[in-house]
Design a protein that fits this description.
This protein is of the alpha+beta class. About 30% of the residues lie in helices and about 25% in strands. Bound molecules: benzoic acid (BEZ).
Length: about 240
């Protein structure tokens, strides 16, 4: 085994021993207290009853991150309208965060002008939170990757996304994921590929021969099947 591989294996083992396994979908979001640009927060306790997008970025004053913050800030009210709060994180200091967010207000890009970032941006100089969430992915860097954790109103991790440093995130897709999760929870359905609000929904796969037969026999305008295991219904609440 090469030296680099051995080091990585050792770190993985150490992390396991220290209980530093990153959260997975379905896990409770690891709790932390943090200083942010909007004051101190206790996560996820302060957000009980709300959906949260907890996201990390590599560094303040970098180009891709700047476009992401302008876009997220412009969409903050759209997220609020779907009971969703944004919380950002990087390993920069509070003062770097404040200076960068003030600078972003002077910039104009892609229709985003004078945007004020009103959601909290966590300072995580010691990388305690970033490590807890698996946001630092390489031994050779202290920068967080572009991670996104969608956390539900009970504080459970429901989605995890990772993007490389050079690729800005698609905020519309992140919003679509929250809407799809909310729809699935509220109506016990699933959402097909490229689903958008209002599109037809996938009904649960039959768990018995009798239900499979019924699914096939009760097709009509509002409910149709391509086969017994792939049935759709119209969205009544669109
Ligand atoms: C950026 O946001 O532009 C960026 C950050 C870290 C590495 C590369 C790009």
């Amino acid at each position: 085994m090469k030296e680099k591989e051995r080091k990585e294996m050792n770190t993985m083992e150490e992390n396991k021993d220290n209980g530093l396994r990153m959260p997975l979908i379905g896990d409770k979001a690891p709790a932390f207290h943090a200083i942010t640009t909007q004051g101190e927060i206790d996560f996820p306790a302060d957000y009980t009853g709300k959906w949260v997008i907890l996201f990390s970025h590599p560094a303040d004053f970098t180009p891709v991150c700047s476009t992401e913050f302008m876009t997220f800030a412009s969409m903050a009210n759209e997220f609020k309208a779907i009971n969703t709060e944004l919380v950002g994180l990087s390993v920069d200091s509070l003062y770097a965060h404040i200076a960068w967010l003030r600078k972003l207000q002077e910039l104009e890009w892609n229709g985003h002008k004078h945007v004020e970032v009103k959601f909290p941006l966590i300072e995580d100089i010691k990388m305690d939170i970033a490590r807890k969430y698996g946001m630092i992915q390489s031994q050779s860097t202290t920068q967080a990757v572009r991670a996104v954790f969608v956390v539900d109103p009970e504080g459970v991790v429901r989605t995890i996304l990772y993007y490389p440093a050079s690729t800005g995130r698609n905020m519309d897709e992140i919003k679509r994921i929250v809407l799809a999760l909310q729809k699935a929870d509220a109506e016990h359905v699933a959402t097909p590929a490229n689903w958008k609000p209002g599109d037809d929904l996938i009904v649960p796969t039959p768990g018995s021969c009798g239900t499979a037969k019924k699914q096939m026999e009760t097709q009509g305008d509002d409910h149709y099947c391509l086969d017994w295991f792939l049935c759709f219904r119209k969205d009544k609440n669109k």
